Amino acid sequence: MTTLYCACCGQPFRRSSPRGPAPLYCSRDCRRQIEVRRRVWASLRAMERTAAVPPPVVPAGAGSFHRVETVWDRASA
Fold first, then answer.
1. Distance of CA 37 to CAs 16, 21, 49, 73, Å?
2. CA-based angle 69:70:72, to the nearest 5?
3. What pLDDT, in 10s, does the model give residues 12-68?
């Protein structure tokens, strides 16, 4: 059997079966720990994204702006 290293704690462990994809974690506890970390990281990234985007600045009295998209036609040569 091949010796693998846990992606959570770094401990060496052996595959229980050569069939299927190689496991990333040595135990159920490590797998749960990584799931918790991923949820925390995702929520932190979401908070950073909302904090990093400042609201758009509209000059006083400018009214509302409408986004206009330009459609380009191919010119015949």
1. 26, 22, 18, 50
2. 145
3. 999 888 888 888 999 999 999 999 999 999 999 988 887 776 767 776 666 665 666
